Amino acid sequence: MRVQAIxxxxxxxxxxxxxxxxxxxxxxxxLRYLTARGCSPNTVRSxxxxxxxxxxxxxxSGMGWDELRPRSxxxxxTFLRTEPTRSRARRLSLTAVGPTGTPILSAATINxxxxxxxxxxxxxxxTEQYDGANPIERRPDPAWQRVTDRxxxxxxxxxxxxxxxxxLKVRQPKRLPRPLSDEQVAALFAKVACRRxxxxxxxxxxxxxxxxxxxxxxxxxxxxxxxxxxxxxxxDHPAGVRQKSRxxxxxxxxxxxxxxxxxxxxxxxxxxxxxxxFVFLVGGKGSRRCEPLSYAALVRLFARAATRAGIREPWVxxxxxxxxxxxxxxxxxxxxxxxxxxxxxxxxxxxRIYTRVADHEVAADYQRALGQQExxxxxxxxxxxx
Length: 386
Description:
Blueprint: E1 2-8, E2 11-17, H1 25-36, H2 41-61, H3 73-81, H4 87-91, E3 96-97, E4 103-104, H5 107-126, E5 138-140, E6 164-166, H6 182-190, H7 195-207, H8 211-215, E7 222-223, E8 228-231, E9 249-252, H9 258-268, H10 295-309, H11 318-331, H12 336-343, H13 348-351, H14 359-378
Antiparallel strand pairs: 1-2, 3-4, 5-6, 7-8, 8-9
Helix pairs in contact: 1-2, 2-5, 6-10, 7-9, 7-11
């Protein structure tokens, strides 16, 4: 059983293929639905791998996909808790380790798989291919009314389905975003190789743009005179780059470095003969010159710079620059709702991971409180014996 990606005239099609080489048709239908709904190729591929784990469980249990029932969901969870992880995650040290020392799926990965499986059965129920209750038990989600850009059910507002939350999940630690320190940022930019790379990283660091939003920028999205960029929803990137948010926004850039670096790249380094509207292109003299830069290329160039700077760790990724920007803005006094809009979050809950009190602020308050306590102990009170 494996996931197969085939590039055709209509773009990339992802399939789940059995050991005998036959395609799992019901999964192909679901993945095509996700593509038609506007999901990025990477998102579709991730769902395919989620369903790969489901099909491995079904083979292990000797049942068909349409025989799975809620009472079997605990068995699925138990199976996933011992399932070996994929090699890529293992290389990045992003896995949990089982009792025997074998890398296994992390709690976050298991929860994502359960979400993917639940979504698959929700689609199968809506398309009348499955007549049972969703095997991944779900409960009404009261948070949906507070979020304007939340995913809609299969049939949109006409559906009788309402946003729900999984009842089955693995407890996982609440991890906070880790911003880069000023020293790490300085070391990273000291090792950036070219104008293009510097401009891209500055857009993430000083503008809080996501990597996909940077790669999707067109030349006419940049307003130098007004000192801002327009983040627009686009699905036309040749390398399949997509933005996470489906809401367009304006990002002001009043710092002195970002737009200057962007202009420097466009005027001095971007291929002059390029006809592509995308800002960031492949340079050099190879066959891919003038093509829009891919997400994989951005990850590679960032990893090389981080390695040369001596700051390479699994959590040090291009997205860490966005975390750094958000943390700096909050600590600089930006209001919560303003930060939410700048970052393009659909829910304020996503923004609140940055608004928690930082460790250094806890330490500073503790030192002040401790000093006050010491002052109270050593200051004589009126009427004390001399």
